[in-house]
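Hey, can you fold this?
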Amino acid sequence: MSGRPVKRSLTLKGHRTSVSLEDEFWQAFRDIAKSKDIAINALAAEIDVDRDPEIGLASAIRVFILNWYRDTSSS
C-alpha cells in the first residue's frame, strides 16, 4: 500500500476532469461500479450530482466508498 494518490481522468457531463485517489480507493471504486453494472464514469456522475458543492469530488467518492462498504457489511 503506497498511500500516495494517483490522478486519473473521468468524464462527467461530457467534460474530462481529474480525480486523485489512492490505488485502494480506485480499485474499490471500480469494484462498486462493476457490482452495480455501470461504468465508472456513470458512478462518478451519480456521486457528483448528489454531492455538496463545497465538497470536492475525490472526497465525495471516498465517503461514498466508505458508506458502500459499511452498508454492505451491515446487511
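Oh, and this one too while you're at it.
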Amino acid sequence: MSSSENNTEKKRFGKLRIFLITVISGIIIGVGLAVVFLIIRTKDSNPSGVMKSDVASEVSDTDDKDGNNTPDASKTDSKDTPAETKKLEVSSADVSGIVDSVMPSVVSVKCTQVKNYSRDPWEDLFYFEDFGYNDDSLSGTGFIIGQNGSELLIATNNDVPSNAEKVSITFCDGTEVEGTVKGADSYYDLAVLAVDMSSLSSETLNSIKIATIGSSDSLSVGSMAVAIGNSLGNGQSVTVGYISALDRKISIGGREMKLIQTDAAINDGNNGGPLVNVRGEVIGIASQKYTSYSSTKVEGMSFAVPISKVIPVINELMNRVELDQEDKGYLGIEGKDVSDSYSKTFSMPKGVYVFSTDPGSPADTAGIRAGDIITEINGREVVNMQQLKEILSYIKYGTEVEIKISTKGRSASGYEEKTITVELGKRSDYEKTR
C-alpha cells in the first residue's frame, strides 16, 4: 500500500475513534444524568420527616381492640393535632338531671318576727289600733331529712328560724304550710323543722321526697358541686361549681369550724339549703354566715357545713321530745368550756371540763371526776356547757346515755379516752338530799 493510501486510512480510523469516543461519552453522560434525575424524583416522592414505618407504627399503636382509632398524645406534636387539643377542652356539664332529682327534697323557709313597739302617749290620740307589726321576714332554704309517724322533718340553718314567731315552709309544688322548730343547735348553726303530715295533701306528698344523704368524708378537691336554694327569697335557683378546699378552718365568735369551700355561689336565702354532688347526694349544708365572713372583696368563696360531721347532731335534733322541767335528765356536774385557745395552748381536748361533781349524783356514781373532759354524749360531739345542758334537757330521767370522756393519763397526748354509761337521774330527787 502506497504512503498516500496509508495516510488516508489513518485519517479514517482517527475520525472513527473520535466518533466512537463521542458516542460512548454521550451514552455515559446520558446514563449519568438519568440516574441523577431518578434519584431526585425518588427523594421528592417521599414527604420529609414522615417515614412509612412511623405511620404504620402510629396506626397500630393507637388502634384499640375494636379497631377504633384512639390517638396517643405522646406520639404526636400538639401543633400537628388540632383535633386532639379540641378533645381536651372542658365544657359545662348539664346538671338538669341532678336538679330534677334533688328539687322535690328542697323547701323554701320564711320566718317572721312580730314586734310590739311602745309609743308616746300623745300618739294614742291619733292611733286607735294595736301598734304591733311584722318585722322584715327572713328567707332561707331547707331540705327534707326524714319523717316520723306524724311529722315531716326538714334540716336548715339555726339562723333561719332563730327567734321566729312564725315559720312558713313552701314545697316544690308551691304548697305553703306552717312549721315548728323541732330542735336547734347554735354551735353548729343547725335546726330541724317539723311539719304536721296531716296538713299536706296527697298531691303534695306525692310530689316531695326525702333527700339522699351522701358522705362529705369521701370528697375530693376539684369534684363538682351543685347548690340549690331560695336565693334572695325569690324561689329556688341553682348554682354550679367545684369543691375548692376541704376542712377549711373558719373562726367566728371564738369558735373554729372546719367547712367545705366551694365556688358555687351561695347568696342570702341559700343558707340551710343542700350542697349536692353529681349523684344528687347531700354533701353539705350551705351557710351564708360564713360566706359573708369571707369578705365582700373576695369572689367565688362560699362555705358549707360537711354533712358527715353533723349527721349525729341532726339525728339528735330529729328525735327531740319536749319534756316538762321535772322530767328532764340530771347529770350532776359543774363544768367550763374548753375553748379553742385553751385547747391549743394546753393540748387539751375540746369539750366540757369538769370542775366538780355533786356527791352521789349520776356522774359521781358512774366515775366522772374533776379534771375529766366530756367530749361526746350518745355519739354526738360536745363542745361547750350550753350544748351539754341543751342535749340533756331533751333526755328523760332514767335513760342510760353513753358519755365519752378524756381523762388525764400517761399517753403521749396526756389524755386517755374512755366511754362510760350513765343513767340520768331526776333533779328533784337529788335536790332533796343536799
